Every structure is written in structure tokens, then in C-alpha cells.
Q: What sequence folds into this?
């Protein structure tokens, strides 16, 4: 297992301009794999038994320009393309995407803003202050059991004012457009893909962005979305064939159709099928129709009206070659990214960063909607660089946690390690499926240093031992 983890980590060596920065990357990801608490970077120092003097060097590493998130992300895609057992439907890799909100009460942390939480859970407040991340994951495994391996999580709101700063690399697009861009970026490495999204992302700008990207591809790469429509969704029938005797331009659409009315109007045309949903085979009833959607766009989409356990849903696919059963099955697996968020927060502590900067104006919790963005008041180039550095550290922390979680999931999916992990953790109701991320973390927490002891010549062992003594006087600022 140690060699498996080591092979993955060593493949990132070319992403770092200095060897010291790469060593800190190995330490950070390794610490994420089995740390016992989530108290920032100090937990990595404690659980790896590093010298306390490493703390400041570790903080410098996250702010260092010796690494670029885009290069590390590209290598992570390449690793998963070769090692992950990707779940495919119609020969297309399935991706999942969603937004996740993480509360942060910091007054001097870039990107923190007031966010609305739409939830039926009464324990959650209606509004929080925090970061909105856009997340994209890769579904790996099979239809009955799979993981959503996180590919990337980026801050996608609250930074629009900083997008015009020199060297920022921040997108000024909306959260919806940025999610489509993240999906197309991943599709560039995994080929033909299906992108499963929540109903919030079914919009005309998103479909236009998707059509523009697909039109530029040469045929070996494409991206289609599978999502859900609102109950108030209205689509249009195809227009009648143009009549040469009629003056004027051809019609772009036919009669309007209120989709929710089809549950009653087409009740006698519903079919039933057994599909795999939430890890088990379920009986569902459905009706499928191809209609035009989007004011001014009128793109042909496949709508699947589904009745299941007394619930009604309207699913949508931009890929007209998918069968209704496949659309239902693919969308049911969107819940895997929610499971991934829970593991990422509760077990891995991937959002446990505490980076801040005094170059940022103090956040006003009582600011009104029309008040100017605090970032618009920053004009000094030095302060802007520090703020961008703060964003760099935050997104780097989350990216390294994504890689660590992906390694845990790859270990769980491997037949070589699954049985060993299951035997080491007592569960009152043991499962015959693959072990969870928490079980793999528990195994590593108990066995990792024994694995190091049995492999004294491994690269990970040498890197950890070199930092358990007093670290050398190295710097990771401008040069890495």
C-alpha cells in the first residue's frame, strides 16, 4: 500500500520548481491521509511527528510560487486517467459537479461573503458567511458501488473585483459558467464525458457555453450534461415544416408544453423499468420526450418524467443518444458527490484552512446589498499580491486535500487492499462492499508508521524522517 501511495505522489515531482517544495507537498498530502484532528496545518506537524520548527516553513509552502494549481490539477487528471476504474455509460466517463458552501467567520480572509443556504434542515441557518466552492468529481467504480473522486474545488464567488488584477487568473464569470468551464477542462483529459449537475445549472448561458466548447472539439472529446428541471419548466414542441408559400422567416419553436402537466396527460404512456439507484435495483415509471428548451436558444433536449416511491422528477439530458433508463441511473448517482462532500468535511477536514491577510479590508457583517465590494477599495499593488497569495494558499490547501481523498478512494477500490483494510476496523454491521474513506483512514492511522518501518528506503520514509529532525534553513517564498 505504501508503494501504491508513493507512486502517485512521486508522479507530481515535475509540478514543483524546487525539491524542497515537492517534499512539503508529500508531507501535506500524507498528513491528510490519516491525521487525527482537523486543526489546520498544525495537525500535520503533530501526526507526522515533525519538528515544531517546520510550522513556519509549512505556512510558507502554501503561499509559495514554486507550484501552480493548474499544473498540479493537470497531473492529478493524468493520474486518475491511468489508475481510476472510471464508471462509463455509453462509453462516456461520468463526472459530477455541484457547489458547496463552507462557513468562515474570518474578517480578513479573501472571498468570504454572505451566502444563502437553501436547506430543509432546521439546524442550518438561513444565511452564513463563508466561501462558495465549485466542485467537480470523477465517478469511479461501477453502478452498484462507486466513489466520487474529487478533481478540483475552486472559490467561484466573492472574487469578481480581483479578476481584473494583474496576474490574478480569477474568472469574472458566474458560478454556473465557471462550473461548465470546470467540466470542459476535465473532459479535455477524459474524452467523451457526461456531466451530472443539479437543477440550478440548467440555464441558457450554461447550454450556450457548452455548445460553444463542443463546437470547437475535433470529435474525440465532448461534454454532455444530465440534470434536473424545475417543476415550473416549460418546453416547446418542434416547429412544423416550413411552408414555401408562407412569407417570413421559419418558426424556431412549436407549441409550448408545461412539463409537469404531462404526468397527468400522458399517464397511460408511462413505462416501467428496473434501474440501479442508490446501490440497489429499484422499479421506476417514466415517460420520455424530446422537446426544445431555452428562450431564444431552443435547443433540443431529452426530458424524462420519472415517478418513484410517490415522488416526481423531471430529468434532462443534452445527449439524445442516452436511453431513459441510463438518464435515470446517471442522475441517481449525483448523490455520490454529496457523500463526497460529507467525507471531505467530516473525516478529511479539507476545509480546515485558516489563512488570512491584513492587506484585505475588514469584512463588514452588516453591509447592505448595494454597498461596494471591499476588494474594490484595494489599489496598492503590494496589498493586491498579498490577497492573491491568500487565495492561492486557500485553494492549494483544498486541492491537496482533494488529492489525499482521491488516494484514499483509490486504495478502497483496489482489490489488493480492500480486504486488508476491512479486517483492521471493527464495525457492528460489516459490509461486503468496498471499505469507506473513513475505514482506510483508520487503517493508515494505526499502520502507517509500521509501513514506514518496514520500508526504510522508500521516498516517503526519507522525506518524513528528514523533517522530524531540525529542518534546514530553507526558504519557500519567491523562489519556491
A:
Amino acid at each position: 500500500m505504501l508503494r501504491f501511495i508513493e507512486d502517485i505522489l512521486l508522479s507530481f515531482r515535475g509540478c514543483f520548481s524546487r525539491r524542497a517544495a515537492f517534499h512539503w507537498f508529500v508531507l501535506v498530502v500524507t498528513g491528510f491521509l490519516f491525521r487525527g484532528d482537523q486543526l489546520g496545518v498544525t495537525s500535520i506537524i503533530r501526526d507526522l511527528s515533525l519538528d515544531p520548527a517546520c510550522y513556519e516553513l509549512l505556512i510558507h509552502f502554501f503561499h509559495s510560487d514554486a507550484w501552480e494549481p493548474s499544473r498540479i490539477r493537470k497531473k492529478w487528471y493524468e493520474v486518475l486517467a491511468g489508475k481510476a476504474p472510471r464508471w462509463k455509460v455509453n462509453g462516456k466517463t461520468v463526472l459530477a459537479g455541484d457547489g458547496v458552501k463552507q462557513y468562515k467567520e474570518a474578517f480578513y480572509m479573501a472571498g468570504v461573503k454572505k451566502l444563502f443556504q437553501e436547506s430543509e434542515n432546521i439546524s442550518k441557518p438561513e444565511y452564513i458567511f463563508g466561501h462558495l466552492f465549485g466542485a467537480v468529481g470523477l465517478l469511479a467504480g461501477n453502478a452498484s458501488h462507486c466513489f466520487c473522486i474529487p478533481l478540483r474545488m475552486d472559490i467561484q464567488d466573492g472574487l469578481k473585483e480581483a479578476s481584473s488584477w494583474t496576474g490574478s487568473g480569477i474568472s469574472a464569470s458566474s458560478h454556473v459558467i465557471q462550473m461548465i468551464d470546470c467540466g470542459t477542462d476535465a473532459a479535455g483529459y477524459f474524452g467523451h464525458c457526461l456531466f451530472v449537475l443539479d437543477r440550478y445549472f440548467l440555464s441558457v448561458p450554461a447550454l450556450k457555453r457548452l455548445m460553444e466548447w463542443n463546437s470547437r472539439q475535433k470529435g474525440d472529446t465532448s461534454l454532455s450534461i444530465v440534470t434536473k428541471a424545475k417543476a415550473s419548466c416549460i418546453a416547446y414542441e418542434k416547429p412544423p415544416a416550413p411552408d414555401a408559400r408562407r412569407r417570413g422567416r421559419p418558426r424556431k419553436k412549436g407549441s409550448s408544453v408545461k412539463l409537469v402537466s404531462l404526468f397527468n396527460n400522458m399517464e397511460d404512456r408511462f413505462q416501467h423499468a428496473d434501474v440501479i439507484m442508490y446501490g440497489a435495483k429499484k422499479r421506476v415509471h417514466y415517460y420520455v420526450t424530446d422537446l426544445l428548451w431555452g428562450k431564444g436558444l431552443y435547443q433540443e433536449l431529452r426530458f424524462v418524467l420519472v415517478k418513484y416511491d410517490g415522488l416526481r422528477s423531471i430529468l434532462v439530458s443534452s445527449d439524445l443518444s442516452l436511453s431513459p433508463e441510463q438518464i435515470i441511473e446517471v442522475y441517481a448517482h449525483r448523490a455520490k458527490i454529496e457523500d463526497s462532500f460529507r467525507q471531505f468535511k467530516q473525516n478529511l477536514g479539507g476545509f480546515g484552512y485558516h489563512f488570512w491577510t491584513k492587506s484585505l479590508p475588514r469584512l463588514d457583517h452588516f453591509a447592505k446589498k448595494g454597498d461596494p465590494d471591499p476588494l474594490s477599495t484595494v489599489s496598492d499593488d503590494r496589498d493586491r499580491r498579498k490577497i492573491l497569495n491568500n487565495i492561492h494558499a486557500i485553494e492549494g490547501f483544498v486541492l491537496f486535500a482533494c488529492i489525499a481523498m482521491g488516494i484514499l478512494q483509490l486504495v478502497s477500490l483496489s482489490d489488493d487492499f480492500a480486504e486488508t483494510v476491512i479486517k483492521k476496523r471493527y464495525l457492528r454491521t460489516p459490509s461486503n462492499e468496498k471499505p469507506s474513506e473513513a475505514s482506510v483512514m483508520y487503517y493508515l492511522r494505526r499502520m502507517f508508521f509500521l509501513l514506514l518501518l518496514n520500508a526504510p528506503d522508500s521516498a516517503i520514509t526519507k522525506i518524513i524522517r528528514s523533517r522530524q529532525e531540525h529542518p534546514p534553513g530553507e526558504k519557500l517564498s519567491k523562489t519556491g
